[in-house]
Amino acid sequence: MITQFRLALRSLLINKVRSALTMLGVAIGVSAVILLVSFGSGLSATIEKQFENVGPNLLYVMPGELNLTRDPSAVVNRLENNQADKIQKNAQGVEGSVPFAQGIVSVSSSGKTIKGTTLVGATSDLPKWVQYYKLNSGAFFTKGQEISGKNVAVIGSKLVDEFFPGSSPIGKSIRVGGSKYTVIGILEPRGSLFGQDQDNTILAPITTVQRQLGLSHPSNLFVKVKNGEDIKLVAENVRQVLEKDMKKDEFSVVTQEETLKTFNGILGAVSAALAGIAGISLIVGGIGISNIMLVSVTERTREIGLRKAVGAKPSDILKQFLVESIFLSVLGGTVGIIVGVGASLLINQFFTTVITWWSIALAFGFSVLVGVVFGVLPAIRASRLSPIEALRYE
Amino acid sequence: MANQSKLNNSHLIELLDVSKVYRTQEKKGEKSVAVRAIDHISLTIDKGEKIAIIGPSGSGKSTLMHLIGLLDKPTSGQILLEGTDVSGLSEGHLAQLRGRVIGFVFQSFNLLPRTRVLEQILLPTLYNTVIDDPKKRAFELLARLGLGDRLTSRPSQLSGGQQQRVAIARALINDPSIIMADEPTGNLDTKSGAEVLSVLDDLSSEGKTVIIVTHDTEIADHAKRIIRVVDGKIVEDIRK
Fold this sequence. Notes:
The complex is a heterodimer.
Chain A lengths: L1 H13 L1 H39 L3 E6 L18 H9 L3 E16 L2 E11 L3 H4 L5 E4 L4 H6 L3 E4 L1 H7 L9 E4 L2 E9 L4 E2 L2 E2 L3 E5 H8 L6 E6 L5 H12 L8 E5 H40 L1 H13 L4 H34 L9 H28 L2 H5 L3
Parallel strand pairs in A: 3-10, 5-7
Antiparallel strand pairs in A: 1-11, 1-12, 2-3, 2-6, 2-11, 4-7, 5-10, 6-7, 8-9
Helix pairs in contact in A: 1-11, 2-9, 2-11, 2-12, 3-8, 9-12, 10-12, 11-12
Chain B lengths: L1 H6 L5 E11 L10 E12 L4 E5 L6 H8 L7 E6 L2 E2 L5 H11 E4 L11 H11 L6 H11 L15 H13 L5 E5 L7 H16 L3 E6 L2 H4 L4 E6 L2 E7 L1
Helix pairs in contact in B: 4-5, 4-6, 6-7
């Protein structure tokens, strides 16, 4: 077997171009699959993480019917801030409820301006029921500040870095739109979702935000449910409470599960597309490998004829070709894994990617299989020919 | 009869009523046809003989050489090597016999592409260990064939005559008792052809059995025995 190994290696070295191209075919297939699957998994993981951040046992009340295809501006918003209190008091199984209002504003301080900041308004109960916004330092606004509509702000880390690098922003002032706000707290960094920087955020009392943005209704209501198992039942309770104020089609109560399902539907399509692309790269890689192997069949058949004529047994030939194919495929596959994983880690600096073991195993297994089959198949055929037939092969 | 000859002094090679039939490929409207390339040939070859097998193209002379050289199996009949029937042996056994006993020289050289001269010559030693120091022997053969400075050359860097001498060195590396050459000068100019023939003459005078297949009667005149093949049959077998 050592002889076969040396024989195979020598043959690979003599035919450097052929060996390199075969390895390249395997490497491209393997790395493409690993990279593409890590994209898809990264996207899926990002979304799931965001939903975990929002906290479990949540219901959303949104204006209008839940319909992704409908024009959102056509929806008439009839939600009221006090409906959150009504839900909290009257709907069974509800732990708490918070109204939200939000809009996009420009913020300036220390001579700098940041555009596209999300201004989020909520009641002072927010930290009690929603774990989405975590405080890094300072404090949330109080019930008193909410009722009187004070211009106080809890700001995201992006704004801290931009306006107050190296110093505490607590007690400093920023301008939101045309109004002056006093910074009372800092949020923990959360990174970005779908290219939107979530740290470019300001939290303020809902009354303040509604006055600032000229909104007369909350954008939506968050409802925290006591027991996640009852969530469907509680959603129905919330619906009944709200139906006293609104018609059935003027609002919708959505569980987190339903929202996740909607996203997962989109994500499923994305994943399927990526799997398709990965499959195509595997096939393309496989065709590349088999092509190079088959192109050299004529030359190799003659080589096999000669080797047999000078004393090689059919088993000698098969062993040599098997070792050659395994060596090339495994080496190419390993290079593919290194490149795929490396590129995936590199891209992870900008966009979340998750490397999955099954994609590495699938890509490596498939490519090595194709490499070995197409490497050995012509050899099996050629070793069955008589040396003379093989030598004359055209 | 075969047993008796084995008991006495067996021939090096003996063909007993050997036939080789090929079937042509089936084509549209044509059924496959059996072609009798070798038609009931019996023949003995003894150690040290220098034989030319001649005949027009398509006569079956190459097929005859392939059968004698164990490159091909007969459809019927027996082939004995040193008195032992080898016609029923497995591919692997035949390969071993070829590697140890027979050296081949082909018209088209059949060198491995892109492979260096030294490795070409050592090829048969990878499959059968017959001699103690293959490298030493390879150097000796190369020096003898005037290729001492061509160790690391590749086939594309060699002339036809040099390539054929590399092929001869390869045929000789395992020190076989039989050398078979199929139109060895067919792809060479007159001068290189003469060189190759003189090498084969030398090998014959050293006691090796040399069998040359050719359609050239001038080359055949080098041999001490001429076997003429026409339509798969021996029509003439002259010893000089």
